[in-house]
Amino acid sequence: xxxxxxxxxxxxxxxxxxxxxxxxxxxxxxxxxxxxxxxxxxxxxxxxxxxxxxxxxxxxxxxxxxxxxxxxxxxxxxxxxxxxxxxxxxxxxxxxxxxxxxxxxxxxxxxxxxxxxxxxxxxxxxxxxxxxxxxxxxxxxxxxxxxxxxxxxxxxxxxxxxxxxxxxxxxxxxxxxxxxxxxxxxxxxxxxxxxxxxxxxxxxxxxxxxxxxxxxxxxxxxxxxxxxxxxxxxxxxxxxxxxxxxxxxxxxxxxxxxxxxxxxxxxxxxxxxxxxxxxxxxxxxxxxxxxxxxxxxxxxxxxxxxxxxxxxxxxxxxxxxxxxxxxxxxxxxxxxxxxxxxxxxxxxxxxxxxxxxxxxxxxxxxxxxxxxxxxxxxxxxxxxxxxxxxxxxxxxxxxxxxxxxxxxxxxxxxxxxxxxxxxxxxxxxxxxxxxxxxxxxxxxxxxxxxxxxxxxxxxxxxxxxxxxxxxxxxxxxxxxxxxxxxxxxxxxxxxxxxxxxxxxxxxxxxxxxxxxxxxxxxxxxxxxxxxxxxxxxxxxxxxxxxxxxxxxxxxxxxxxxxxxxxxxx
Amino acid sequence: xxxxxxxxxxxxxxxxxxxxxxxxxxxxxxxxxxxxxxxxxxxxxxxxxxxxxxxxxxxxxxxxxxxxxxxxxxxxxxxxxxxxxxxxxxxxxxx
Lengths: 569, 95
Hints:
Chain A is α+β, with helices and mostly antiparallel strands. Chain A is 22% helix and 27% strand. Chain A is built from 7 helices and 28 strands. In chain A, strand 12 (288-293) and strand 13 (302-305) form a beta hairpin. Chain A is extended and about 150 Å long. The termini of chain A are far apart. The chains are: A alpha+beta, B alpha+beta. Chain A: It is found in: Cytoplasm, Cytoskeleton, Cilium axoneme; Dynein axonemal particle. Chain A: Pfam families: WD40.
């Protein structure tokens, strides 16, 4: 059906503007749906169509044909002669050349270039500009990483009643085992039923100790025999010395007799370097240092009383807290006392009085740790009260270097066996400090919080990598240090000794000054009488001067009055 | 002439192996070496000098290349560039 709409327009109205007007909608046609047609279709439901509200685009790929490129050099055989010159003909080329040479531009250019060139040629002949002036220096590896340590293992006291770990000792070969002495150091406050066992731990197995050592009274110190790794020496709380042979079992192999032992807890035991490897010595707060031979441990072989007045009075002896012995100086040993004094002694002295060589005082409290620097035996480290100090044997009046006063008590300290300037300290607040005097003097190079309770002891393994520290609740933590702290730095060998010497020198100067001042004071005390006479003289002088002055003024005044009067009339 | 003298003087310096003056088209004006070597040097060094000069001027337009020195294992090639010509000297620096 066609839809047609006819509209007419008069010719006179052609070109007229359109006037639009509204009119009602008119239905032009109405086509109803035809259901028969629907049968040609099948309903599809649901219909799934994707819609997108964006411009439709199409993607195309095209691959160009390969274009091969090659880079080549050209070997010129002949220059770019101008067209009229035939390079083959000698005459033409010569003529061309001559023409160029006559060109003024050419002359100027050559003169200028020539002078520059000559300068450089002469330079070349004068010196070799590429000569290596600095011989190969070893590249000092500047590592940016800070020293760090991480905890590897924690060994907990298997007992219910916790005791503090008071001493640690590494196994002499291979460092695979750790012997820890447990005891309660609080005076007579050891709780009932506290076990007196100490343990040997294998580093691989932190859950259960490898061996239990059963002493009659809790052990305060425990040391492996450096010569024989099956033998251990322990100092007990009741003053006895005991030694074990691991092969025999956990019971004491032999024990010293109570009558001849120390009267106070044994705080320091060290093996001596002897041919038999059975000699050791111990120190305790009762003021005695005893030497023992473990083959006959019932009696000490030698006793030294730590009386500084050299009179061997036990009553005035100082209690020893730490003991130091260096195998390179076999006749000397040092004792750190409860009173804060380090006593340096000579074992080979003939009389007992001569045994005590000299004392170093400087700490306010007991010296908990005392160790010589393994590289520079003249310097030793003491740890006590709130500081750690480094001493030199030469300067007796004071330490040469010391740390600042910390907030917590320092309980133990040790030098690093690998790096001469590094030492470690533990504090009552559970931190382990690593000090590097070459790097920084006022603060520790690294400060680690190991645990919340106080740390009582620390021990560095011989290779310098591992540190074990024992805490108040009997937990021993094993830490591993990274390279910076454990490997020898290149700068160390030069800086370290000079630093120590410098500080020693400084102390010596101070000592000399002190001595001078003391002498002066003595002199002053004698010269005080003279001073008093002088002062009386002074007063007299002052009086005389005053009178003279007043006289002069009066005469002057009188003179003026006289003149004035004369002028009046 | 002066030019001759200059070139002779340069050539007579200690360690100088060869001297050559080449124009912008690669034609050797004056050379103490044989033609083919000279032309080779000319062609290659000209390009290199252009590159060096453009590098210098790219970095700082008010700058210009005054001298170019190439040190190799065997000897040193020194190039003094000009607008039209190149003065090339090959020297064996005495060490």
